[in-house]
């Protein structure tokens, strides 16, 4: 499996785990007095978050990301649905352009 594909899978998994944590586990903890839900989902999300950050740093060069895009992709990890955007729109390799003056 290439690293870009791995990043796409980790990105989706991290975003889904974040949504499950926010929309399922946290309400169960506070509204149904079931703290075990967060105890289960929290560590899974934590591992996926660390994997997302690590693989984003590794894949940035292959995708042609500049520092700004890299920082935005890393920041996306703390927003519930932003990794879906990163996976959908930023995981295609940057187009190779010819230097000016060559024909």
From TrEMBL:
InterPro entries attached to this UniProt entry: DUF3817_TM (IPR023845)
Keyword Phosphoprotein among UniProt keywords: no
Chief place of localization: membrane
Bilayer-spanning residue ranges: 7-28, 34-58, 70-86
Annotated compartments: Cell membrane
Topology in membrane: Multi-pass membrane protein
Residues covered by the DUF3817 domain: 5-92
Superkingdom, natural source: Bacteria
Keyword terms of this UniProt record: Cell membrane, Membrane, Transmembrane, Transmembrane helix
Protein's UniProt name: DUF3817 domain-containing protein
């Amino acid at each position: 499996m290439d690293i870009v594909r791995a990043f796409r899978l980790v990105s989706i998994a991290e975003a889904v785990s974040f949504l499950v944590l926010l929309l399922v586990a946290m309400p169960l903890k506070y509204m149904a007095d079931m703290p075990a839900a967060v105890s289960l989902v929290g560590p899974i999300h934590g591992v996926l978050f660390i994997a997302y950050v690590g693989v984003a740093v590794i894949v940035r060069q292959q995708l042609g990301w500049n520092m700004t895009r890299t920082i935005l992709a890393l920041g996306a990890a703390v927003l519930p649905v932003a990794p879906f955007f990163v996976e959908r729109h930023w995981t295609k390799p940057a187009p190779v352009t010819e230097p000016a003056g060559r024909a």
